[in-house]
Amino acid sequence: MGIFGKRGASREERAAEIADKVASGKGFYGRATRAVLGREDFASVQQAVGAYRSVQEVQRLLAAGAPTVPAVVVSLADTGQLVNHDPVVDLLLQTPGSPAPITVRTVVSKLRIPRPGDQVALTPDPAHPGGYLYAGDGVTP
After folding, report:
1. What is the sign of the dihedral through the CA atoms of 83, 75, 55 and 36?
2. What per-residue string of b and e applies to 10-32 under the rule 16 or more CB within 10 Å gives b?
3. What pLDDT digit, counting tens, does each position of 23-82 carry?
4. Rounded mean pLDDT, 83-94
5. What is the pLDDT of residue 3?
6. 58-68, pLDDT tens digit by residue?
7. Which long-range contacts (CB under 8 A, 24 or more apart) does 19-24 make?
8. How many CA atoms lie within 13 A of 141 on its CB side?
9. pLDDT on residue 128
10. Which of the listed residues 13, 38, 55, 109 has the most CB atoms within 10 Å of its CB?
C-alpha cells in the first residue's frame, strides 16, 4: 500500500470502483451522490453505470470466446444518458427464430450508432438466462 492509497491499481480500475460505489449508494461517493441528486436522477446514474458495466462484461465474454447471435435492429430510442460522451440507447432487436422482438439498453459509439435494418451481434447474458447483451455491429474498428 502506498502513502496515498492503493498501489498498483490502474486509473481505470479505480474509476470502476468509484462508479460501483456511486451506483450502489455506498461509501463516501455513493452517499454524497445520493444525497445531492433526487431519486429520479440517482436512478438515471444507476442505469448509466449499469450500461457501462454491461459493455465491460461483453468485452470480457467475447475475449473468453462466448458465442454471438445475429439480430436485426427494429428501432432505437435515445435515453438521454451519456457514458464517456457516448449515448445510452434502447435497441429493439429481432433475433432469428424469436417470435417477439427484445429490448436491450446499451452504450453505443456515437460514431457507429446502429440504424433500423442494420444487423448487430448479441451475446447471451450469463447473469440473466434468456437475456442478451449488445456485442456491437460485428465490424472491427
Report:
1. positive
2. eeeeeebeebebbbebeeebbee
3. 788 888 888 888 888 778 888 788 777 777 777 788 888 888 888 889 999 999 998 888
4. 90
5. 60
6. 888 888 888 88
7. 19/49, 19/52, 20/49, 22/49, 23/49, 23/50
8. 4
9. 84
10. 55
The single-letter code of the amino acid at 41 is D
> Considering only CA atoms, which of 84, 41, 71 is closest in space to residue 134?
71
Four-point Cα dihedral 40, 44, 46, 48, nearest 10: 180
Residues 6+ apart with CB under 8 A from 84: 52, 107
Average pLDDT score, the chain: 83
Pair type for strands 132-134 and 86-94: unpaired
